[in-house]
Design brief:
This protein is of the alpha+beta class. The chain is built from eleven helices and eleven strands.
């Protein structure tokens, strides 16, 4: 999901790639875009951008203000997959929901691309009023806004959930909160007020101990021992300053360098839990006292080392027709025993053939050829007694009366 660094880099990309371009005509909107039609049209206009937290504002300005329409502002939210791309108008990418066409030939298009359609835009220059100061561009105001509002009930929640509250942490998202807490070894489900009140006390003690510290020394101390609020500024700045090395707006699908930069989020061996908002938080160690009940931390599978070779797979057994029982037994015996058993069988067959020629009965064959003799006659039983016996046998109450 695009967070503060992605929106700031998108703003840089628009200003750098479109600063010298001249756009013309109206703004094209797709039928499924999550935003209104843009009532702006000009024969020659320029585009500029500025980001704040998780919002980005575009300004469309006519090159001739006297002859053209007034400037039009649009504020974008990127949602889960929003980004800006500059491409040929004849080769528009899929899910290009808003398009600004250049006046050159062949024309190009600056497109707002959003495959999952959670992103949106609105007309006007106003930022969302419920969002606090930006963690990157308004750091000092952001820090003061947090520390002076620690009595707010929002800070009764775990620190991992509060870090997603845009009223106080405008720009922080899922991967940033995991990286920040991991670097400070703070359990994600520690109470937010407990964590942040300690920062307030440390700051007051630091001022009392040495009020004569110069600004440069203070900056150096903070860089050597950053606290949570300072990391909310410096960690996004790492991504922004690296620019194309980590996140390249021109190639938004290339995340290999960014994945290597991550230390905790989605990293093999790290644990994860779902917070009360349903978002997954990645961490190392204990989750903290406010961890959701009934959940067990899951660990991301570790990658196999490239030095270890995988064991060769065992060949699958060949399926053969079922052999007779005698042949199966023979296959399980050593060759010598099989040979002896075969010789004994042949001797037995020769002996039986000799007995048949001599007219003597073969062993084992007389059982089925016994003479059937008549059974001795038994006294006739009266019909009433026979009925009584059958009824008694069915009920299982005992033997029939003797005659």
């Amino acid at each position: 999901m695009p967070e503060c660094p992605e929106l700031h880099l998108a703003g840089r990309f628009i200003n750098g790639a479109c600063g010298a371009l001249v756009f013309a005509g109206g703004v094209e909107r797709s039928a499924v875009g999550r935003g209104p039609e843009v009532p702006f049209r000009s024969e020659a206009y320029g585009i500029s951008a500025v980001a704040r937290g998780k919002e980005l504002r575009l300004t469309l300005s006519a090159l001739d203000p006297a002859a053209g329409p007034p400037a039009q502002d649009l504020v974008f939210r990127f949602g889960m997959s929003g980004s800006f791309r500059l491409c040929l108008a004849a080769e528009l990418p899929r899910h290009a929901h808003l398009r600004f066409l250049t006046r050159e030939s062949p024309p190009r298009a600056l497109c707002f691309v959003d495959p999952r359609r959670f992103g949106s835009w609105r007309l006007g220059d106003a930022w969302q009023p419920e969002r606090g100061p930006c963690v990157v561009s308004e750091y000092q105001a952001f820090r003061e806004n947090v520390l002076k509002n620690l009595e707010d009930r929002a800070f009764d929640k775990p620190i991992c959930e509060v870090l997603l509250n845009q009223k106080y942490f405008n720009g922080i998202g899922n991967y940033l909160r995991a990286e920040i807490l991991y670097r400070l070894k703070i359990p994600p489900f520690e109470k937010a007020r407990t964590v942040l009140e300690a920062l307030k006390e440390q700051e007051q003690e630091r001022r009392k101990k040495d009020p004569s510290l110069t600004l440069s020394k203070k900056v150096k101390l903070r860089q050597e021992n950053p606290d949570l609020l300072e990391l909310c500024h410096s960690v996004p700045m790492e991504v922004i300053m690296a620019e194309k090395q980590l996140l390249d707006p021109e190639h938004p699908d290339n995340y290999s360098n960014f994945k290597n930069w991550l230390q905790c989020y989605l990293v093999p061996g790290m644990s994860s839990l779902r917070d009360r908002s349903g978002r997954t938080i990645w961490f190392q160690g204990e989750p903290g006292p406010m961890a959701p009940k009934g959940q067990r931390p899951r660990k991301a599978p570790r990658k196999k080392s490239p030095e270890l070779k995988a064991e060769p797979e065992a060949p699958s057994p060949k399926v053969t027709p079922r052999a007779p029982k005698q042949r199966r037994r023979a296959a399980a015996k050593p060759p010598k025993e099989v040979k002896e058993e075969k010789e004994e069988q042949e001797e037995k067959e020769v002996k039986e053939e000799q007995e048949e020629q001599a007219g003597r009965p073969r062993k084992g064959r007389a059982r089925g050829r016994r003479t059937v003799s008549a059974a001795p006659a038994s006294p006739e039983v009266p019909q009433s007694i026979r009925r009584s016996r059958r009824a008694s046998a069915r009920r299982g109450t005992g033997a029939a009366p003797a005659v």
